[in-house]
Amino acid sequence: MSSTELEELRVKITDLDTHLLTFLAQRQQYTNQVAETKIKNHIPVRDQKREEKLLIRLIKEGNKHGLDAHYVTQLFHVIIEDSVLNQQALLAARANPGSSLPLNRVAFLGDKGSYSYLATQKYFSRRPGELLEIGCQSFLEIIKKVESNEADYAVLPIENTSSGSINEVYDQLQHTHLSIIGELTYPIKHALLVNQDTDVSKIKTLYAHPQVFAQCSHFLAELGNVEVKPCDSTSAAMLKVAEMQADDVAAMGSETGGKLYGLHAIQSNLANQKENHSRFFVVARKPVNVPLQVPAKTTLVMSTVQKSGALVEALMVLRDNKINMTKLESRPITGNPWEEMFYIDVEGNVQDGPMQQALEELQAMTRYFKVLGCYPNEEINPTKVAAVSALAD
Description:
Order of helices and strands: HHHEHEHEEHEEEHHEHEHEEEHEEHEH
Distance between the termini: 41 Å
Strand content: 25-35%
Number of strands: 15
Radius of gyration: 24 Å
CATH class of the largest domain: Mainly Alpha
Low-confidence stretches: none
EC number: 4.2.1.51, 5.4.99.5
Binding site for substrate: 10, 27, 38, 47, 51, 83, 87
Mean pLDDT: 90
CATH topology of the largest domain: Chorismate Mutase Domain, subunit A
Subcellular location: Cytoplasm
Domain Chorismate mutase: 1-91
Main location: cytoplasm
């Protein structure tokens, strides 16, 4: 094939890609119209039976065109997720008139390139208004920025699939009047970032956030005699390495973030757990109203009376009201040895009858009780379809 023929094919592919984007934009407009209908008729955002039928039909149609079933499924999982999130955002905006800001001032840990920075970009990409990023050096500073009205929102990492919960954030949430208004998960892919090409064996000093070191402990053990220097954030580590311009130092963090500092990766996928994700909370001064059509989560904190079985009794309240608990975290109460504060995530909306009943019962039977926030559930679990079965039907 000549270079001219290759270029002609590339032009045709580019033209098709442009048409694909046009069709996707049209599809998004239609799904927004669907959301309007759901608002008027109080219909839930997700209809997984319909999603299943849709995927089966698309797999069969794709098969006629020689497209692999798994390729079709993965492609439309992304399209459906985008549709669900857009519809949820539209419903949430209608339920909270006046909440949209022309400028969203958001406080987060670190600076450009940190995982909190990347998570902030992802979350507010679906929200109207410009984004003003406010990098901070500690979780306390982040909270204070919002409390003092220097920021409208804060993005806080709460847990990681590899290193577990971030206890300092839980402690901050207990003592602030801010409310959780949203959540998101962000994939964490640690890479070894350097200024210039060098062999891993030549690295003498590594800079990273302590959480990154914890998540990549197996990789660090294999490196051997390398000095590790903790930084306040992954962005601070990247900046340090970028300024040093040395061939024996490296930072550990996001490859995407590293590019913002002129760094490039010489090794990737460093985490102990390859499916590594961090969950973030978005907090603000006022709670949000989550429409009942939107799947919701509620996070609460409580301490039980000091008697045998008190925690079990509290959890039975959730079971009796058919409320699913997704997380239970305990933290020691400062100044009260051997006493615990319990943080609980549940699936449910505070406006729903069973949830209201459960919250009333829990408040009556606990020593301390506080709802930290009710917010849309943005973990969109893909509808499962067996591709082989779909083709066989």
